[in-house]
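Appendix B. Worked example

We walk through a single record from start to finish. Start with the input: the chain for Elongation factor 4, Salinivirga cyanobacteriivorans, length 595.
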Amino acid sequence: MEKIRNFSIIAHIDHGKSTLADRMLQLTRTVDERDYQDQMLDDMDLERERGITIKSHAIQMRYEKDGVDYKLNLIDTPGHVDFSYEVSRSIAACEGALLIVDATQGIQAQTISNLYMAIEHDLEIIPVVNKIDLPNAMIDEVKDQIVDMVGCERDDIIEASGKTGQNIELILEAIIDKVPHPVGDEKAPLQCLIFDSVFNSYRGIIAYFKIVNGTLHKGDKVKFVNTGHEYNADEIGILGMGMKPTKELSAGDVGYIISGIKTSKEVKVGDTITHVENPCDKAISGFEDVKPMVFAGIYPVDADDYEDLRASIEKLQLNDASLTFEPESSAALGFGFRCGFLGLLHMEIIQERLDREFDMDVITTVPNVSYNVYTKDQEVFEVHNPSGLPEATAIDYIEEPFITAQIITHADYIGPIMSLCIDKRGELKNQIFLTGNRVEITFQMPLAEIVFDFYDKLKSASRGYASFDYHTSGYRQAKLVKLDILLNSESVDALSTLIHADNAYDLGRKMCIKLKELIPRQQFDVAIQAAIGAKIIARETVKAVRKDVTAKCYGGDITRKRKLLEKQKKGKKRMRQVGNVEVPQKAFLAVLKLD
Ligand code: GTP
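Next comes the structure step. The output line below is what the pipeline stores for this chain.
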């Protein structure tokens, strides 16, 4: 155990975590030069393209120092707020963390939130100023920020560049010298913390864990404490660039287990693995059942693809237990699914994976958060969809989820950011000046306001100089109304939203204007109306046009005519017939694009 170091890397998005990890893998010869590819740890195509780490992974490196061979387990963590529970479990499996700060950017919101998490778990922090090769690196200023935040000595901060590989050895040696080795009792009853799982189409679910206490052998009968399921440890092993089976793993080790688990729902990140015989007294603390926070309807563009869509979502769920879905139907869109996501980025990723990996053409409806509805008959239920709301007269009150939002920005942008947050029903909780002219602002805000267009607005309010992070902080009572959109007097359920009463008029008006832009002119006038209950609050009209696309062919060339019609048909693919009106897919997300 003395020769093991378990560590993670915490950093704000794009501060260079993956690049630095790549350099460490190269230097320790964990990967063959021949197999080398940028960003080895991001093995999903989408991750590589977007340059973000979505799922966390683990990898073991070997490094020799003073003649001693050390095992360094790097537990990679996803950087985005949507996945912060996964970050917390990966951090719980470590004894130390590299804190990477981009020398041109300084400390950002996620650096801080992840750092707090690491400090809470008593991790040894090794601070690194990265990207020192860049001409605009502000090494001294960023070091000041780090000393302020971490309370470390200035000399403890390593200056490095993932790009040139400068000082990567120093980082590896600091990990060995400073990060404490894991402590645990190899002879105690087995206690393993699951910090991640992946789906493999040949092997089923593979769970990644760290052994906190005890010893696990291949073939042991094990139990997952929180789910209560029992399995046979068919294969256990360590994670190198691939899986390396072993016969035995013990306290302090990080490894994987394959045990005939079929779906990701059976494996919960944060759960504890123990033996069926001689089990541990209690599970490792901190387990949470992650709950989706954002919901949206996903419908096939072509109604015939409904079953294919179901099969595709089921497959995605096999390796992403945080995705939930249930069938729903919409008068406008037909049969589809109500899906639950951890956040907006998660939703985008799922949508893109459906398109890329499964070639599914889908329409996604306006996302909303989940509400607690209290009825006058003392009933309470969760509503994930505006159409699931009971009659207004039956409702006693509604609660909506709130978040604590942390924003770090330059002092120059405090004004516009404050107005934005207040506009979004935020309440200022705290404002702290960090080093230089940087400020940390903390707001309490309704999650629903973030789901709409908060990121984009924050970016423009701060000219890109603001970073943002949040965590959920319970539910609060809210004055919400259901805003309906009618096209030629027919209510389009897929366009309904739940909105705070104070903002309903404004939203209704903007929705009508936006839809007028998005809905193409048709053979007849299209009336677009916004309504609360029976009351119409806004109206726009798309004027009729009489256009025959084939008219310009002078009736002559029939093949040309056919081609043109074919083309028109294709263009229609992302259109939906709602009553007699053709509505393009974009219109269903109009609410996200309002000014
Ligand atoms: P997430 O996985 O999204 O959190 O990003 P990351 O922190 O892993 O950042 P990544 O390693 O993908 O680096 C972000 C960008 O910075 C990439 O374009 C890298 O090429 C660049 N980069 C990383 N390290 C350095 C460095 O030391 N110097 C320079 N000049 N560029 C770097």
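Two observations about the output. Confidence is low (pLDDT under 50) at residues 47-56. The pocket of guanosine-5'-triphosphate is lined by residues 11, 13-19, 51-53, 79, 130-131, 133-134, 161-163 (CB under 6 Å).
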